[in-house]
Structures are given as structure tokens and as C-alpha cells.
Amino acid sequence: MTTRPFLTLLMLACTLLASACSLTPTAIPPTGTAAPVVPPPPAELTYDMLANFTWLAPVSGRSITLVDGAYTSGSDSSAEDFLQATLEARFALGDLDYDGDEDAAILVAENMGGTGVFVSLIAVRNNNGVPLQAASMYVDDRPMINDLQIEAGEILMDAVLHGATDPMCCPSMPVVLGYRLYNLSELVLTRRAGQTSGGAPRQINIANPADLADAAYPVIISGSVTIGPFENTLAYNVFAPDNTLVTGGSVMTDSLNPGDPGNFTLSLDLTLAGVTGLVRVEFIEYSMMDGSIMTLDSVLFNIP
To answer: The whole model's pTM is what?
Structure first.
């Protein structure tokens, strides 16, 4: 064996070895590491979903399975078991239970024979994309519903309802009503604004603190009335986050003459009672005739 071929092979081997050593190593992905899982957005409630669902009808107390928003039991309107129910076209979406998902507010009308069509408001929770009936509130017989919305957790309904002397066919009393969901199963009236017989607005407006704002004791609550209440006196009630009544009393407005607009202020300190969280304070004007609520406004504020 000659020396030249051997040297040639040796030099070639060294060249290949040097080239291999000079290569930059590539990163090897670690094993067993899964890609991050992005949760899907919460499923939304739709009108079609609500219109093809089983509900407990609030007035009749019967279970109704809607098909395209309608339900009928029986063909004879004079029969005891006759029931027609419909889901009104007007509905609202918004977060009622502060869990971040869009819930719903719907209106169900029931006719059990005769001329009465009894409309109820139903609060519907979003249970992972499935409707869950939470609470209901009777509205009126054949009301005129102008608008239905959910704002900052409050259901707001603009409607024309029956006054004390209205014939059942023809409501004439314009109102704005507000409701909040408590304990996941209870609708509470949180707002009522209306008009006098002459068309003047009758309402209480709380100006401070802002709704859902953070606050600290003592909380100064101030507002106004468009029409001074009887003897310039409003009632107030204070509720804990679970809707338990904590205290109540009365507050005076500064209306100069009966029926004049005015202002009111209440200083509230529940430090000794230890009430924290979302505290609700409502101010009410009661009718001196029958004790019914003429107008009402409330505010939610958070005591950390």
C-alpha cells in the first residue's frame, strides 16, 4: 500500500470531521409540552333558542314547551285546561348575575280563555349556553311594551300599563320599571318612574354615588324629585348584598311648595353593622290613597 492514497483518505476524513463539528446545532423541541388551550367564548343565548325551549309559565304555573315561540293546549277556549302562550318578539341580552356571560330577559304572554292576555317578565341565566329560568315577575294584562333592555345588570322596561280607572282593553299609564336579579332566583323592583295625570314626569333620581361605584362609610347619597312627595317625605330602605333588609327610615326633600321639584340627602354609615359588598339603597314615594309605590329609585354601591 502506497503512502499517497492513505494520506489522501486521512485528509478527507479530517475535513469531513471538521465540517461536522462546525455545524450549529438546531434546537430540539421539548417533548411532552402541549400547546396552550384557549377556552372557547361563552355560548350566547339567541331568540331562536329561547323560542324553542321549555318554560314554567308564571301565571298558569304550567310547563310549556314553545315551538317557534308558541304553545297551545286544547282547542276549546272555554275548557279548564286551555292555554295559549307566546314568547314576545322583544327580548334583551345582558349580564344579570355578574358572571361575565350574557343572560336574557324575555316576556311570555298567557291566555287561558277569555280576553285576558297576561304578560310576565322572565329573567333567564346563561348556564354554559343553555337557558336557565331564574325568576319571573307579572307585568300586566295586555300591556304595551315599548322597550326592554339590560343595563349594568338591571332589566329596564318601558311600558304602558293599566291605571286604576283604565278599562282592561286600554292601558294608559306610561312607566319605566327596573328589576335586578338577587340570589339567582328573585327579581326585585329597583326602579319605577311615571307621569302624573297631566303628563308631568314623576320620578326620583339618585345622583350620587354612581351605580356600582366603590364607596366608603359614611356614604353621602343625594338625589332629586321632579314632584315633591306628600309632606316632602320619602321612605328609604337599605339592603345587604343578599337582599336582606338592614335598616330603613324617611328622608325629607326641600321642595318649597307641594308638588314642586326638590332635593334630598342621606348620610349612611353601617360600619358598626359590618355591612360590606354591594349595598342597595332605595328611595320610595308611596301613594297616600292605597299605599302602592308611585315612584322608586335605587342605587348599588360597593363597600370593600
So the answer is: 0.84
